[in-house]
Amino acid sequence: xxxxxxxxxxxxxxxxxxxxxxxxxxxxxxxxxxxxxxxxxxxxxxxxxxxxxxxxxxxxxxxxxxxxxxxxxxxxxxxxxxxxxxxxxxxxxxxxxxxxxxxxxxxxxxxxxxxxxxxxxxxxxxxxxxxxxxxxxxxxxxxxxxxxxxxxxxxxxxxxxxxxxxxxxxxxxxxxxxxxxxxxxxxxxxxxxxxxxxxxx
Amino acid sequence: xxxxxxxxxxxxxxxxxxxxxxxxxxxxxxxxxxxxxxxxxxxxxxxxxxxxxxxxxxxxxxxxxxxxxxxxxxxxxxxxxxxxxxxxxxxxxxxxxxxxxxxxxxxxxxx
Lengths: 201, 111
What we know:
The structure holds 2 protein chains of 2 kinds.
Chain A: H1 23-32, H2 37-41, H3 43-63, H4 73-88, E1 93-95, E2 103-106, H5 107-118, E3 125-132, E4 136-145, H6 151-170, E5 174-185
Parallel strand pairs in A: 4-5
Antiparallel strand pairs in A: 1-2, 3-4
Chain B: H1 3-17, E1 22-25, H2 29-37, E2 52-55, E3 63-71, H3 77-95, E4 101-110
Parallel strand pairs in B: 3-4
Antiparallel strand pairs in B: 1-3, 2-3
């Protein structure tokens, strides 16, 4: 994982709640029975805990369902967490087309397409991709080859590729496309994408 | 869910699935979790139209219909969502004359 931008070295899906707390920490505290004044009073933390309680009740219901077959617990938990990321943490809805059309795409879905677009530029590895605002601004972290002769030109190439994909494949109007180059890597460090995480937003 | 709401869900699900570019309606959390362990992908009661929500927000004379779907990657996502909205709008205008609807289409995946 050493080749990934900093945001992806721990948990690329981790999320900071509007109150400033990490979602993972709020959930961990709840599981361990740790309470403080903030968690008790904060609407964002309470909502995050409610999501987790909802998930737990779903999983318990599955355990008591005779139609299910026994499975390996560790792999089952991994798969449950994949679903959690998709269902409980899909990011924000972003406007597709004109804002008054009531057409939306979830942030993680759009981010995945834009990260893939950036990686169509040879040697580029995309890390985190955050989207928000109207029109939608993009903050994209990338690793680029150490041998890149003109980093500015490469960043522009990435911007162009992201913009074309957003417009032609998704139909998303973008505002600013901020490309942050977080590392220069040698060719042998650039591992194939398939060896790394695959579901980061 | 009342019988008429049930009917509307089923009708809309059929309309949406017929639109080119639609892969499938978004499965709900319950059906997604169940699918992780199910011995067969047989549908269960209440699982058939998880990607469609019909509600009547207070203060709004319109009924809100939200469609959550997964699109195919071989078509522009915006074009698919516009086609879905038009198909749903046409169906509602014909089947429920005199009622006003707000139609929201949300893409939760591209495959």
